[in-house]
Description:
Strand 4, helix 6 (about 145-155) and strand 5 form a beta-alpha-beta unit. The protein is built from 16 helices and twelve strands. The strands form three sheets. A seven-stranded parallel β-sheet has the order 2-3-4-5-6-8-10. Helix 4 runs parallel beside helix 5 (about 115-130). By secondary structure, it is α/β, with parallel strands linked by helices. The mean pLDDT is about 95. 5'-deoxyadenosine binds near residues 73, 204, 317 and 318.
Amino acid sequence: MERLTNILEKAGVAAGNLTVDEMTYLLSLEDKEDVDMLFSAAYGLKVRYIGKRVSLRGLIEGGNYCSKNCLYCGIRSSNRKLARYQLSVDEVERLAHICCDDGYGSMVLQSGELESEAHTRYIEEILERIRPLNLGITLSLGEQSYEVYKRWRELGAHRYLLRIETTNRDLYSLIHPSNHSFERRLDCLRDLRRLDYQVGTGVMCSLPNQTFDDLAKDIQFFYDMDVDMIGMGPYIEHPDTPLGQEFAGRLMPLEKRLDLALKMIAVTRIQLHNVNIASSTALQAIDEFGREKGLLAGANVLMPNVTDVRFRTGYQLYLGKPGLDENKDEFRNNLEKRIHDIGEELIIGERGDSPHYKGRRDSNAW
Ligand code: 5AD
Ligand code: SF4
């Protein structure tokens, strides 16, 4: 207990204060009282930097075509069981209006990774249409060239999410085909920074063979890369994927994966202090109150899905993704109440920029 108190005290003084060993220790805590102490320290820091406020982004799943073949993902290119779709520019524009009308303040446009002029142009057309709405615009469209990122940045996209998935290169090779490059992903993150995006990254936790030490190093990577936003979640096997099949029945029980994902949120908050951290949908896939638990462990962003229910079955990255039969309005009303129930307030109609990004700009680091 004394070690825990000392570490948490040190962590509160400044961001970046913990060693990888100390973070490994925090991630491996099991005793309920210890874990609760960790969560309340992380929540305290979240309140210090952000307040008792939760930012919203309306998540639009634009399409499930993907040229990549990640071994864990349900929409990988080799999965022939899946009907593929791409929303029209009009449809995305309609959803963006809904985000505005519902007070989300920001939207995230996510889809599989496609590198073609036609796709780049399609995204440009969407950006041209939604720019006048004055919504915060986050893109999550995978690895692209510097030029493409630049074209989208110039049309008003100002945040970009690109998860590194794991910083352990061996584990990266285990979960990706050999032609997927860790180095390229790093280069993309650097390009996004150079283009003055608010940059988000993240990892999956509870991957096969992953250790607490790997995860502590992932958090140190977030700190060293000076990122503004973090999105993480538990790995959940999908039966139509090589990784899902190879490790079937050999992964941690789901409740343990939820606990670890929550500890990852907490330790990330404790080490990085003022970044935006999403409480991901994958948490809710495990526990009905997973997302609220994420908020109480230090996250501050929710990304409700606004894509029409009829398309959502096409976007199953993993098994049991929640909200497939959820009506949007019902969800929105419930959400308000659920957030109040945990003593937090929804931020309505604001972009909810990362305080870390603002801090970087104000300190003239650029
Ligand atoms: N389980 C959990 N997360 C997954 N993702 C993809 N497949 C899975 C899975 N089986 C995550 C990856 C990716 C994001 C879009 O979804 O981290 O970056
Ligand atoms: Fe495509 Fe992303 Fe899934 Fe990989 S994780 S297959 S890049 S959608």
